[in-house]
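User: I'm curious whether this sequence folds into something compact or stays loose and floppy. Could you predict its structure so I can see for myself?
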Amino acid sequence: MGTNVDCYQRAEGRYQLMRGIITALRDAANPFSILTKGTLILRDLDLLLSAAEVTDVGLNVSAAFVDKSLWRAIEPGTPDPERRIEACATLNDAGLRCGVLMGPIVPYLSDSPAQLEAAVRQAAAAGAVHVTPIVLHLRPGAREWFLGWLGEAHPRLVPRYAELYGRGAYARKDYQARIAGQVRELAERFGVGRGAARGDRAAARGRGAPAPPPRPPAERHEQLELL
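Assistant: Here's the prediction. I'll summarize afterward.
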């Protein structure tokens, strides 16, 4: 859930459909996964914990970069990336297993070695069980909006995007492979997914270790806002 349309958008705060969905999946012991940019997922921490006792629960937050100026420009209506990382930490501290989907990585705007390192370092500190980079996709609709914004905000990059994407939706394979390699090396350096990660406390619980007390949820949870 959430790989096509985020299931914690603004309407979810009012209608609370996810609580019923998670309950049904738990009661059927049906494995499921959730990907979100919203921190509203913390509202359902109790249900996620009970579901994880009977089935596989995969959790990921989406946070590709921690540059707040870029966040405000291309991801308006979403929570601050640092708040998403904090949500990942809360889920892992509670004994669940949450990773970070680094998407979208925006070519020439969020892909410098320093920017990638900052994002992976924060994900590691949050106990992310993995980090997965996803380079910006320019599918019809999103392509027109993004290239229009790019032409106004960063006109010097327009020729570089034409060379990188051509007429397609995906960046050149060599670029994607380079980004994947950089993120993989950073994940290894910072210990993402190693036994010391917070997410591994869930496994420790199965060996008789006491479960850690969940971190108290933040007072205000955020979901995506449709603009």
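Summary: The two ends are 21 Å apart (CA to CA). The chain has ten helices and four strands.
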